[in-house]
Design brief:
The protein has 132 residues and is an alpha+beta fold. The chain contains 4 helices and 4 strands. A 4-stranded antiparallel sheet has the order 2-1-3-4, with helices on one face. 12% of the residues are buried.
Length: 132
């Protein structure tokens, strides 16, 4: 899955949180953002995921413009914030069904596979609120 940011900028009034960021991340590359608080890491990732509209510039995931093709992006990209608001009473299986439905995906067996990959299969029927 390729990712491209082209002159990505986000302003909050006079504050420029992300300033003219351009980068290309080829498929298969692992990318991490490091920096102090307020450096624009979360703002950048939210724009990449289509959760926040850029003040200028564009983001493309697999060639799809994030603002013009939000459903295509949600089928290809998952954004997990540092403090997710997980419904504590849902099980992992229920949460995956909910997120999949919100993104117009039917996960089915893929949800089980993902839980196994992340070593959560044993906890799939436990409420998320009980996870460490």
């Amino acid at each position: 899955m390729s990712l491209e940011c082209d002159h990505l900028t986000r302003r909050y009034g006079a504050l420029v949180a992300v300033d003219d960021l351009s980068l290309t991340v080829p498929s298969g590359t692992i990318l991490g953002f490091l920096g102090p608080n307020g450096a624009g890491k979360t703002t950048t990732m939210r724009m990449m995921a289509g959760l926040l509209r850029p003040s200028a510039g564009a983001v493309r995931v697999c060639g799809y413009d994030v603002q013009r093709h939000p459903l295509e992006i949600r089928r290809r990209l998952v954004f997990l914030p540092d403090e997710p608001a997980l419904p504590e009473k849902l099980t992992a299986n229920e949460w995956l069904e909910f997120v999949g439905a919100a993104c117009h995906l039917r996960l089915g067996a893929r949800a089980t596979e993902l839980l196994e990959i992340f070593d959560l299969a044993r906890a799939a029927r436990q409420q998320i609120g009980g996870y460490s």
